[in-house]
Design goal:
single chain; 595 residues; alpha/beta; binds flavin-adenine dinucleotide; binds 2-acetamido-2-deoxy-beta-D-glucopyranose; GMC_OxRtase_C; FAD/NAD-bd_sf; oxidoreductase activity, acting on CH-OH group of donors
């Protein structure tokens, strides 16, 4: 209870104050209710329509509640074709560029990526607008086992939560029925067990056969049972992000803070009753930001709840701007503390990824692709459009883009796989400023799930400054080195070796642990950041949320997005976060019926 002391002090204080007390305390909820402008009152306000907020907002609206959501609809080829995922990253309408400090300035290694941008997207779909659309449920058992144990609640078991995946999936690649998959949801999925693509490139077809031979148990990656330690899988991908046509959208409204009031009764926690927004204001990390201007504020009110789903950086920032966070930190920005919740912005986690790249002997047909917008000049786009609706067998088809993945345990003592390696028939050094480009590139990316690095997302009004702890944990580095070495063995297999011209990164001269470590430190990348408002038990001082996603010490306020996870979910976070969003919608609807 130590955590809530300041909020009790404040509630006693506000009993003797009145509405519009400004910085001296919270307005009384009774006064606020009378003052609310009916024009701007909704049942729920959801801030952010990414994988965390989108499905939840849609479910609340579907259940008859009025919901308002900040974000704009983006429709373009860039967000429809997974192969365009590198182009869409620089789309000025949606790009949000956060600055990331990988290592302390005095650390012996520095990342060789001069971009130093941590990409995020604004708009309906959130980062699902510009991500690689990988839909992967593997690696989640440790996450849900931990949640089940923390909350002593079987509704968090992987088996139970899996029902949400079945609910949302519209599987386009497996025969029905299948107890692990859904066929009627809103998330179209493609891919599945790998079959040599029937595309136009004999070289890639042959390599795919070689990859499949490297792990004879060709299994679906999205099954309730953990994938075996070394198995060939395929990644399935979505066509559609989130269909949110039913929502009234508030385009480009930038919330400044959550409005909080004090209910009658000293023992009651402050209540969230709305949002202060600045219409037409851009986030400082957006291309549309043209400098500081005087902001006009409008208030939107919520009859029931405010749900913050603005992603791993913006969600803790919004809480902090509302007076919810580490008291010492808030004071340093002159923000009055309503709830001293030191976990806000802490516990920044991510997956770690490291590429290994080769040149192939032949240029693949992707060499003819222009990644353009006109099928008349881009033969690959023409092929993609002609193959609608499934888009099978074209150079832009995601199953060609991801011919397969290997999943294994980095050490025998683990119960579940913690490493996933995906193969890309392209030059892929991750999200870097100057990746170089080779038409005949070929890459394997090793992704360490449940990585040990921790950081902080400290937030000031205009920037996100943060620090990640370098991956100096033996197990993480060993797992990444193991990935590079495994990939080198795989490309020696028949059907693959004859197509390899040469290894380029890190290059055959990097062999010892030390040489590989140096390469890893300089080229590690990640974009699955999370966990900055973690769910946790009552006795966990770092917990920001309880198991119903409620912000501790405040009523009618929840956080549902990547920041809600205590640990990075599995290997790819989007589909797990869609599930979280669906579960949160159920909990909110249950709790709302009780009003
Ligand atoms: C380049 C890249 C590739 C990726 N590839 C994959 C992949 O292949 N598979 C996978 O599973 N995951 C992938 N991810 C990760 C995944 O996309 C993210 O983890 C996920 O989108 C996070 O969801 P979210 O809802 O927490 O936040 P976000 O997706 O960041 O959504 C937050 C939303 O809130 C809005 N918002 C923020 N602040 C405000 C504000 N103040 N006012 C109003 N609205 C606001 C934003 O505009 C945005 O729409 C990738 C991520 C990146 C960046
Ligand atoms: C964000 O990054 C993209 C991709 O590199 C770039 O095109 C854009 O100019 C950047 N925007 C800002 C505001 O830095
Ligand atoms: C870092 O990048 C520069 C420029 O791209 C390149 O010349 C240099 O070799 C790189 N260093 C390493 C260690 O990869
Ligand atoms: C590959 O394409 C040919 C010709 O279009 C077709 O007959 C065959 O069935 C396809 N094979 C697969 C595995 O899709
Ligand atoms: C997978 O497990 C088997 C048997 O337990 C073991 O022999 C093998 O080395 C493991 N492979 C990897 C890549 O961990
Ligand atoms: C927002 O900008 C649009 C276009 O510039 C304008 O039409 C609209 O009135 C603005 N809204 C507010 C609330 O300022
Ligand atoms: C709060 O932030 C201050 C300043 O950064 C830090 O010293 C302190 O340890 C934090 N408190 C907690 C409980 O995390
Ligand atoms: C790519 O273009 C070259 C030259 O125009 C052509 O010979 C080749 O057939 C094309 N490849 C594919 C797969 O279309
Ligand atoms: C506020 C804060 O902690 N900022 C830090 C972010 O990371 C860089 C690099 O490690 C530090 O220099 C900043 O102080």
């Amino acid at each position: 209870m130590r955590r809530f002391r300041s909020c009790f002090a404040l509630s006693v204080f506000s009993l003797v104050t009145h509405y519009a007390v400004g910085s001296y305390g919270l307005p009384s909820c009774t006064d606020v209710a009378q003052a609310q402008n009916a024009k701007y009152i909704f049942d729920f306000i959801v801030v952010g329509a990414g994988p965390g907020g989108g499905p939840l907002a849609a479910r609340l609206a579907e259940s008859g509640y009025s919901v308002v959501d900040a974000g704009q609809n983006v429709e373009s080829l860039d967000v429809a074709i997974p192969a365009y995922s590198n182009i869409v990253l620089s789309d000025p309408i949606i790009a949000l560029n956060y600055t990331m400090h990988d290592y302390p300035p005095d650390f012996q290694f520095q990342n060789n990526n001069t971009w130093h941008v941590y990409p995020r997207a604004q708009g309906v779909g959130g980062c699902a607008l510009h991500n690689a659309l990988v839909n992967c449920m593997a690696g989640l058992k440790p996450n849900f086992d931990a949640l089940e144990t923390t909350f002593n609640d079987p509704s968090w078991s992987l088996d139970t939560v899996w029902d949400y995946f079945v609910r949302i999936e519209r599987n386009l690649y497996l025969p029905q029925p299948n107890p692990d998959h859904g066929f009627h949801g809103w998330l179209g999925t493609i891919g599945g067990p790998v079959t040599p693509s029937n595309g136009s490139d004999p070289q890639l077809n042959d390599i795919t056969i070689g990859l499949a031979n490297s792990a004879p148990n060709v299994l679906d990656i999205n099954t309730r049972a953990s994938p075996p330690n070394f198995t060939m899988t395929a990644l399935s991908s979505t066509y559609s992000a989130i269909i949110l046509g039913i929502l009234p959208l508030l385009s480009a409204h930038s919330p400044q803070k959550v409005l909080l009031c004090q209910p009658e009764g000293a023992s009651q926690a402050p209540r969230a009753y709305g949002l202060q927004v600045a219409p037409n204001a851009s986030l400082p990390v957006s291309d549309q930001f043209t400098g500081k201007v005087e902001l006009d504020f409008t208030e939107y009110y919520a009859r029931h709840e405010v749900v913050v789903s603005a992603g791993l950086f913006q969600s803790p920032q919004l809480l902090m701007l509302s007076g919810i966070g580490n008291k010492t930190h808030l004071e340093s920005f002159g923000i009055e503390t309503v709830v001293d919740l030191p976990g806000v912005g802490q516990n920044l986690r991510d997956n770690d990824e490291i590429p290994i790249t080769w040149l192939l002997k032949e240029d693949p047909p992707a060499g003819n692709c222009t990644f353009g917008t006109d099928p008349a000049t881009d033969p690959c786009l023409a092929a993609w459009e002609a193959a609608a609706p499934k888009h099978d067998g074209t150079p832009y088809t995601p199953t060609v883009g991801f011919p397969g993945a290997l999943v294994w345990k980095s050490t025998d003592d683990l119960d579940d796989p913690d490493v996933l390696q995906y193969w890309v028939p392209a030059w892929d050094m991750g999200y870097v400023s100057d990746p170089g480009f080779f038409v005949n590139g070929f890459s394997a990316i090793t992704l360490k799930g449940h990585a040990s690095s921790r950081g902080t997302s400290w937030t000031s009004k205009n920037s996100i400054s943060n620090q990640s702890i370098p991956p100096d944990i033996q197990r993480d580095l060993a797992a990444l080195r193991g990935g590079i070495r495994t990939a080198r063995q795989v490309v020696q297999l028949p059907h693959i070796v004859e197509h390899i011209l040469q290894e380029v990164n890190p290059g055959p001269e990097a062999q010892t642990d030390e040489e590989l470590n140096e390469y890893i430190f300089e080229h590690i990348f990640a974009h699955h950041g999370c966990c900055t408002n973690k769910m946790g038990a009552d006795d966990d001082d770092e917990a920001v949320l309880d198991e119903r996603f409620r912000v501790r010490g405040v009523s009618s306020l929840r956080v549902v997005d990547m920041s809600s996870w205590p640990d990075a979910p599995g290997f790819f976070p989007t589909t797990p976060t869609y599930m979280l969003s669906e579960k949160a919608a159920d909990l909110i609807l249950q709790d709302t019926q009780a009003y």
